[in-house]
Amino acid sequence: MEISKETRKRMMQIIAFGILLYCGMEHFDVVIGAVDFVLGIVMPFLVGGAIAFVINVPMKSIERHLFAKNGKLAKWRRPVAYLLTLALVIGIITLALVVVIPELGNTISMIVQQVPVAVKAVQKWLTDLPDSYPALAPAVAELNIDWSSLADSIVTFVQNFAAGVVSSGVGIFSGIVSGVVTFVIAFTFSIYVLFQKERLARQAKQILYAVFPEKATEKILSVAALSNQVFSSFLSGQCVEAVILGTLFVITMSILGMPYAMLTGIVIAITALIPIFGAFIGCVIGMLLIVMVDPVQAVWFLVLFLVLQQIEGNLIYPHVVGSSVGLPSIWVLVAVTVGGNMFGILGILVFIPLCSVLYALFAMFVKKRLREREIPESRWNAPSGGAAAAEPEVSDKTGGSGNTAG
Shortest CA distance to 250 belongs to which of 240, 241, 263, 236? Predict the structure, then answer.
């Protein structure tokens, strides 16, 4: 039997792939080293692309409403939009670093100073307890507490815990600017991308059409456009959700007369940019701010946080962020859980829009297959359990019950 040229070509490709795969598995450490080397080279450009993508979301909206397209100032639309967006981002970071962190540091310092006083008060209370409650005298007498060591342990715990909270709160920013050289290259690259994005898009299309078949290129461009839309919508929805949650805390804390209402709301809004779990960081910081003013209010703040967190986690977040990326609420929760368990905060940030893209692509695949197989909509869009009774003639023709497709 004669083998066609196309078949021989595919066989050679499979054999070559098998050889490369075998060599890669045999020298896995070399492959990992090569991947790390390549990532080290391209990392500034990956970071720059990520910065450009994030800045482009608000910048695009500002540019759309800035000046007339055909006016004398049209050529200044993009530079002005970029500067306004950059000022907005720097303002948010400055607000977190200049306003929140010093206040948090002052609160931690006050807590450390008050710990010895509080320990002495507890010690005096235990000493006076047998006089008020003679029945408890034997139990108090059996207590053997090194009060000095206890006070030192509490101070050390508060300092270490607060340092961990602060480092977690600013971890996103410190991760981006971890290397000065990397940041400078990435930032410069992001500026070039933002000001030349149309030209870069045309060049990318030219390369794709030159390298891949036309049908494959159209598919790649379609997926890229869908991914860009989903990730942009997710970023916008995340920001809206953070503003809503911060506003809820400001309003409810002001109504209940809690201290630091505005500052706590700002902290929670900033930390809530980390999906689902970021608000818990804001909760800890808010409690540290309130506890020195009124410990009872700090307890009520914790209760308020748990209530608002339930509302935000089950109602606001799935609907605001879920609708912005076109992902049903249940799959938003699944994406957050899986992404967080696998890759932490980065996994949470990436998995929601990624799952939305996969969800949309799979939905298109299913609809295409239904059309190809000529399955009528009445078969899969009928109410559960009612299709067979409503359309017995369809069941008779296909030889099955009407609700199997649903």
Answer: 263
